[in-house]
Amino acid sequence: MKLSYKLEVVTPLFLGGSDPRRKPELRAASLRGALRFWFRALLGGVLGDRPNEVFKHESEVFGSTDHASPVVVRVEHQNLPTTGYSQLARNNPGIAYLFFGARQTRNEPERKAIADGCQFSCTFHLRAKVQNPDALRAAAAALWLLTHLGGLGMRSRKGGGNLQVVSTDWSDPSLPSLVLQARMPEQLHGALQQGLHRLRKWAVEAFNGSLSPSFETQPAFDVLHPDWCSIAVVNREFDDWKGALDAFGRVMQQFRNRYEPDYSNVKAVLQGSNRLQPVQRAAFGLPIVFYFRSLGGERATLEGEEHDRRASPLIVRVIKLASGKCVLVLIRFHSPLLPAGERLQLRHRERKVYTKQPSDALLDEFLNHLSQRVAPLLEVKDW
């Protein structure tokens, strides 16, 4: 049994090879890693507080350190054209902000990305002597999630590496179609609601789960459940992905720049204070590097006391409609910023000042701000 797909790169794909700063490489291993993430999120949303079962079913599809995956993922393509950060950022300050990590630094050249519009082929098939069609269905379900909600590679939570299936020789009545037919934001809203509901219903039946699993506490990892994940379509059509991401990036930059009281709070520490109130901007993820030109270029880094990184719980991605227009989709996971009790630390030179984790209320404030500045949000419910 073999499932074949043709995928399109909707937004530039920053996918490093052996040397991340050189030519990007599109490899099956990278795609498999993203598929694993979304499959785990799907399982968590129907199994609840059963992490051992989540891991068991995840490893049965995508393998573990003990055994190989029964599903072989292959990627085939010719030479894919690339584009550099400076070219993408030119005259697009919002994109420059979102893809900031790909810029040239004092010690490293700028990152290059596989250009938007490129297409490549992907196949899933079972290893020899493996008879488990449910594993292929699980991989296809993960692909639907990746190509409707996620991204691949660096900056994938900021609109980078968005992929879509443009054609396939496979369909299954228990799963939603991988090829998007929606031509308007309202139709996309309906397609996401119906698709997510069908995926969760399939996962319940396939893995003995529930549409209303129990969660004694906030999930420790990102899960696809209506109580722990919010999804919305920005009700506005853009001519292309650049217009969509640039509009989003401009609003995010304006909202976060010199956000008070964070700005004055952190600046006071650099001026000698040993008190640091919770930094609200941490709700967008860690680390955060603060730079103060007014203090002669002084810098400080905010991170977890034990975990220096935390991916943003807010994902923005671009969907290309069947009409060719582009729409923004927002995915917000309600999972902990860091493990309970872990403090945040602000590092400035040889000094560290500690504070508590903030709430995620700033994300609500930002989404309300975005709906006023760009377009209303169509929240996806009842999935």
Q: Strand-and-helix sequence, N→C?
A: EHHEEHHEEHEHEHHEEEEEEHE
Q: What ranges have pLDDT less than 50 throughout 5 or more consecutive residues?
A: none
From the N-terminal CA to the C-terminal CA, the straight-line distance is 30 Å
Number of helices: 9
In total, the number of strands is 14
- Summing up helix and strand content along with how strands pair, one would put the structural category as alpha+beta
What can you see in these coordinates?
This protein is α+β, with helices and mostly antiparallel strands and 383 residues long. Helices cover 32% and strands 21% of the residues. It has nine helices and 14 strands. It has a four-stranded antiparallel β-sheet, with helices on one face. A four-stranded antiparallel β-sheet has the order 10-11-7-14, with helices on both faces. β12 (344-348) and β13 form a beta hairpin. The longest helix has 23 residues, at 185-207. The two termini are 30 Å apart.
List keywords for this structure.
single chain; 383 residues; alpha+beta; 4-stranded antiparallel beta sheet; 21% strand
Question: Quick recap of the structure?
Answer:
This protein has helices at residues 28-47, 51-62, 85-89, 93-98, 133-149, 185-207, 241-256, 262-270, 361-373, and strands spanning 2-9, 71-76, 82-84, 112-114, 119-126, 163-168, 229-234, 288-292, 298-304, 314-320, 326-333, 344-348, 351-355, 377-380.
Secondary-structure topology with pairs:
Layout: E1 2-9, H1 28-47, H2 51-62, E2 71-76, E3 82-84, H3 85-89, H4 93-98, E4 112-114, E5 119-126, H5 133-149, E6 163-168, H6 185-207, E7 229-234, H7 241-256, H8 262-270, E8 288-292, E9 298-304, E10 314-320, E11 326-333, E12 344-348, E13 351-355, H9 361-373, E14 377-380
Antiparallel strand pairs: 1-5, 1-6, 2-5, 3-4, 7-11, 7-14, 8-9, 9-12, 10-11, 12-13
Helix pairs in contact: 1-2, 1-5, 1-6, 5-6, 7-9
